[in-house]
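pinging the channel bc i need a second pair of eyes. not urgent but kinda urgent?? the chain im working w is below, pasted from the shared doc
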Amino acid sequence: MLLTHGSSDAVLPAAALTVGNFDGIHRGHQAMLQRLLAGARERGLTSCVLTFEPHPREFFAPQRRPRA
């Protein structure tokens, strides 16, 4: 696993990517991640998840931000 904060000079392999706010892995997230993994396997790619820290609501709707 590669974990970065901000920009990175890391050389990354070709990847199947999903982007979202993974603030818990509920059934919807599980189904989406299974699709990501299946698609990556079919294409011989690494699977990758891009998420945000802090949650975007911290900036755009602080009154509705997720509770810690």
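so The longest strand covers residues 15-19. and The beta strands are 15-19, 46-50. — does that match what u expected or am i reading it wrong
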